[in-house]
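Researcher: I'd like a structural prediction for the single chain below. Treat it as a standalone chain; there are no partners to consider.
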Amino acid sequence: MSAAAVERPYMPGHEPLTLLEQADRLMEQLPGYRIEILGGDLTWSPLPDPSHALGLSRLRRPFIAAGLDGGDTEIVEGLGLWLPDGPANFAIPDLAVVDADAQDHIIDYGCCDPAVFRLVVEITSGNDINDLRIKVAAYCAAKIPVYLIVDRKHERLHVLTEPMEDGYAMHRIHVAGDKVTLPESIGAEVTLDVTQVLDDARPRNTRR
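Model: Treating it as a single chain, here is the predicted structure.
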């Protein structure tokens, strides 16, 4: 999900709050919103619209059908991912496939070691710059094996694999009519119907 940056507050006569302290304060002010620190910037994401939520819920189905929800892996929403590209950076993917023992690998702030993440998914909404650029770099630096982006604005499915020092080595873009088989490194063979994925997540109401 996309997000907007938040300026760091400063109160004369007081020590500036750390980014994690600011994140805590923002969570109190915006209950239910997704707070992340990406590239040293505090960001927030509004509550998902109904189509975003529906698309995410339905996207779980092929992963569940492949047997990834239980056993060696789990399918989770809203699990924090600690990022190695800064002292306090973390992201919260819309959806992820993680090792079953992920809860035993918490680094800080309730966020897990990126090594337990086999796949992360983001469904864009509003300003999609975070999902299509900033998080590409962040997830690559964290060596997330597979990053899947449902680009609702351009009606495309992005599959990024093989993280390298300077970016993902493979970035495939798929459109309606395509069938996409994800790498078996996520734990099982999962094939996605791009038409179905895009249709499930397509916004039904464009009012602002």
